[in-house]
Predict the structure.
Amino acid sequence: MIYLDNAASTALSPAALEAMLPWMTEQYGNPSSLHRAGQRAAQAVSEARAQTAKILHARRGMVCFTSGGTEADALALSTAAAWGERHGKRHIVSAAFEHHAVLRGLEHLAEKGFSVTFLSPGPSGRIRAEQVADAIRDDTGLVSLMAANNETGILQPAAEVGALCRERGILFHTDAVQAVGHIPVDAEALGADLLSLSAHKFHGPKGVGALLCREDLPVVPLLPGGGQERGRRSGTENVPGIVGLAAALLQADTSMEADMARTAALRDRLAEAVSRIPGVHLTGMDQPRLPGILHLCVEGVRRDTLLLLLDQAGICASAGSACSAGALEPSHVLRSMDVPEPLSMGALRSSLSPANTEAEIDTTAEILSDLIHRLKN
């Protein structure tokens, strides 16, 4: 099997597994318990919180562990909405290509009376800070812009937008799920009041993520309960998952420079090979991108058929977000980029990791070329 769907989920790193195992076996105390087993678990969570904060250039009190990126996004939106209501600011600016975790949350807020402006990037796939500035109104309370797009890999000007929001007293949330662990992420430099991440995107375990939230910003819990995570997220902490998140993040941070270089080289090798295939259009090649994502569209080919045949050939890829893998309609991301619908129906995303090899890349290009030729003829 050649696995090229790392933007959907990554393999659990040996370092993360090793760190998790004791908390899945002999260390099973509840972090809220007062006895020594519970306090050992509480200490492990505390150390993971400190390590996560350090790597992301945040204060440890900002880190609230969640069940993943979707919950972190929902928690960010509920918190920002409550802040906006208190300050008479019920307008939100976001992008039309956001992950569905953000889009659905914003649709819910619109049903509750909030006004939402969705910006489209056009063919570049990249929102400009000037667009955000033009969309801001006197009653704007939140700007939510992802750090890197999960389908195209195109990086967004999060730092510029964060600085703009800070100047104008507006909350800034960035969904950094695809960025954390793959490129340097500095919460302070981004000016992020709220930042979402998920462990399984950077070789950590599934079912755990985090929201970084400015300490003076009261988090609005999604569920009532025991008040864990300083009252921000009720429910017994997932100690193995939290420890695994921190271990995976540390490993990613330690090897990031080398991993970025290797993954980008593999991505460019694949891009150079597939660009010679008739009818293939590469996406965002002139834009800053994540090192591991290559997105393309194929004329006259349906993505579902192509993905099925790739799978039969032993290659795992995707058309875009795993959360909408079964959807037959055109990608909302490509629609926001004005990609014609017939072309967007042939979308393919390959997302690589440093574990991939040049031989795998060359094999993928050969198989893809053959499949496209067969499907067109």
Summary: The mean pLDDT is 96.
